[in-house]
Amino acid sequence: MKNAAMKWIDSFLAKLRNERNYSSHTLKSYSRDLQSLIAYCDKHDISQWTDIDDQVIRSLISQCHRQGLGGASLQRMLSTFRSFFKYLLVENQLLNNPAKNIQAPKTGRKLPSTLDVDSVARLIEIKGDEAETVRDRAILELFYSSGLRLSELSSLDLNDGKKSVSGVIRVTGKGDKERELPVGKKASEAIKVWLSRRAELANENEQALFVGKQGKRIHNSVIQKRLKYWAQKQGIDMNVFPHLLRHSFASHMLESSGDLRAVQELLGHADISTTQIYTHLDFQHLARVYDAAHPRAKLSAKAGEKLGKK
Do 94 and 85 contact (CB within 8 A), yes or no? Predict the structure, then answer.
């Protein structure tokens, strides 16, 4: 791809960052998808954006699909291409959008893993009075209490923590959208204890609620490692990560309340179809309970899975 064409990618990403306030994570995904497009173009001697037609995009998507890329990733890639080509149209670099009418191959939607209520309790009820342990206990409680994303939790400030003791916390989610969430009694108590010990780790002027050994805002990777550490220590035979607690929160809330709209609001999902995946998890749980409890049921696990997908 010619240097002149490559510059339009830098310009596009800069626009998303500066004018639309896209997160660094989203920008990396966009950049990665566009780099895949460039690599494909270079391999097939395509040097300008005007040389790309819908067949080029179809071939690239088919290639990625054969290499094992899932439906969701292919959808994201196509979304990136559509946005980029739309930008080139506005800038008079293209006459049409070659990705506009292309659909990604459909693949079965993978249900998220969750912990049952007892396993969550065992994970959270960690023992120890060291400052790091007190911090980790508060982190675990807050993840499960309010269903936060990892980035939402790590970006909380000290004032957010102080307010959460009263049972409410405000977080900034995807697209810089704010939402107010309830904080359970156990989580509020754990945060209150952490606040009384926070000075043992935090630098004097640090504003982050949760801090690491260096006294600065705790890094996402540190939180992930600490969750794995506690899962092993507590004897939980699963890959435990922050989003697993969010999935567990959503599944348990829906199982108890049956209120899909409320769970959508709590999770901060823009589209309720994203939340609906938890209804399948809920049904599978009910099918297992029915099969185990009803004397004349004995519904097979395979049948339960089929019903859950309907």
Answer: yes
Q: How does pLDDT run across 85-115, given as a tens digit for each residue?
A: 999 999 999 999 999 988 877 665 666 788 8
Q: What is the pTM of this model?
A: 0.61
**Residues 245, 264: Cα–Cα separation, whole Å:** 16
Residue 302: pLDDT over 60: no
Q: Are 227 and 248 in contact (CB under 8 A)?
A: no
Q: Is 269 a catalytic residue?
A: yes
Q: Which two tokens stand for residue 151?
A: 């980035």
Which of 142, 130, 151, 172 is CA-nearest to residue 221? 151
Q: At what angle do helices 131-146 and 242-257 cross, to 10 degrees?
A: 40
Tally of helices (H runs) and strands (E runs) in the chain = 15, 2
Query: Which is nearest to 162 in space by CA: 196, 130, 211?
Result: 196
> Catalytic pick from 149, 179, 197, 228?
149
Residue 48 CB-half CA count within 13 A: 4
Which one is catalytic: 217, 278, 280, 285? 278
Judge whether 243 counts as a catalytic residue. Answer: yes
Query: Which of 46, 73, 43 shows the shortest CA–CA distance to 61?
Result: 73
Determine how β-strand 178-182 pairs with β-strand 168-172.
antiparallel
Active site residue 44: no
Per annotation, catalytic residue among 100, 174, 192, 197: 174
Is residue 219 among the annotated active site residues? Answer: no
Tell me the per-residue pLDDT of 106-157, one tens digit each, with 9 for 90 and over. Answer: 665 666 788 899 999 999 999 999 999 999 999 999 999 999 999 999 999 9
